[in-house]
Input
Amino acid sequence: DQQVKQNSPSLSVQEGRISILNCDYTNSMFDYFLWYKKYPAEGPTFLISISSIKDKNEDGRFTVFLNKSAKHLSLHIVPSQPGDSAVYFCAAIKETSGSRLTFGEGTQLTVNP
Amino acid sequence: EPEVTQTPSHQVTQMGQEVILRCVPISNHLYFYWYRQILGQKVEFLVSFYNNEISEKSEIFDDQFSVERPDGSNFTLKIRSTKLEDSAMYFCASRNTGLAGETQYFGPGTRLLVL
Output
C-alpha cells in the first residue's frame, strides 16, 4: 500500500531550528491528513490535522501545509526542541472508507541540544 | 486525561496457539479500531468496529482474526491460530464520533511474538 509515503526515514536538526517533515500521497480522495508522533514503547499520539479543503493549519509550534496539486504535505516544527525527538507518522483518511487511517512509513526526528 | 489502555504489554506464544489482545477504549467513545505494525513496516489498519459490528476490515483481517466487545468497556482482538508472521505490535484505537476529521486515540500497544 503506497498511498501515503514518507521518503525520509530520518531527520536531524539543531535545537531551536525548524524541522520540516514531508509526506506525499497518491489518492486524491483523502479528506483529512493527520500527523502523529510516536515515542518508543508508546502508541501514536495525535499532533495536528488538516482538511483537504485547507492549505494550512497551525497549532502552536506545529504547522501543517497541504499542497493538493502536488499531493504533498509537510509538518513544520518551530522552534524544535529535544523533546520533539520521536517518530512522526503522516496519515490520511477518506470519509467513505470506514474511517481507517492510512499511514506513511514514519520519519525519525532527532533534535540535538 | 482519559486514555486507551491495552493488556498485556507483551505476549509470547507458540505458533498455532490462540491469543486474545485486550483493549479498554476511552469511555464515551463509540468507534474502535485495531492496527498493527510489523517491525520495520508501516502501521496497518486491521478492522473498525461500531455499534457492535465490524464496519470495515482490511485484507489482512482474515478468518483467523475476530473482534468482540464482550461488555461495556473491553474491546478484544482474537487470533485463532497464530502464525509467525503475526508477530507485530498491535494497537487499539478509539474515537468519539464518526466524523472523518476527528482524531483516533491510540493505546500503547501489545507486542506479540509468535515462536
Summary: Residues 3 and 48 of chain B are 18 Å apart (CA to CA).
